[in-house]
């Protein structure tokens, strides 16, 4: 096969020092990568990332913009699903902790060896390729999402037997609101004294219920919803996979009918039960 016809990985450089960026560009092209752009600010980095869709971003942390490289990486990583390797002269603990929250693929301290950069890039590209394949398989398995059960008769009968007056009316109204929105419901989150429905609808992304999270859990957990966190109930049919967010925390990724996948936290105490009941969510 002609090497010229092989698709070369595209890399976006985010670096506010022009000479440093040009030197890095020359190094990457020597490794046979394509440099699809150089950005000196957060705004330019996001614009180029959206336009060029690089396979990887090499990110400096200190930029000539209000937002630094860590804030920029948060967008490119979680909204565009582009892996990030930090290249920085700064290595203090606070900055490292902030950087870890963006799920980086690497963190190289300047000056670094070209060989270390090459190895970091190759490992990142391979890992992301494998993860993307797993995500695609999960997405294909859920391309025809099963609609949640919409018959709330058992819940309504239970409420009818156990309550009366205003409390019964509020619970009936809440069940009705849930039933109307069930097709587009992603999850329920505790919000102060009450709870909120998160919906897969651009015109109505959320809806507040006038009942407590505990009340909703009492009547709907293990029938419509599954509890994965002390403050979250999910529609199991929406779940794609569970993965580590960082060294300590886990997150569940959900897919609706029209929105891009979104993530919500998973309580560590719920993980053993979830592994038993839904091992397929952990294949990722």
Automatic annotation (TrEMBL):
Molecular function terms from GO: DNA binding
One biological process term in Gene Ontology: phosphorelay signal transduction system
SUPFAM superfamilies with a match to the protein in the record: CheY-like
Keyword Phosphoprotein: yes
Domain Response regulatory: 10-125
Annotated spans, Disordered: 131-151
Keyword Magnesium in annotation: no
Protein name as catalogued: Response regulatory domain-containing protein
Annotated source species: marine metagenome
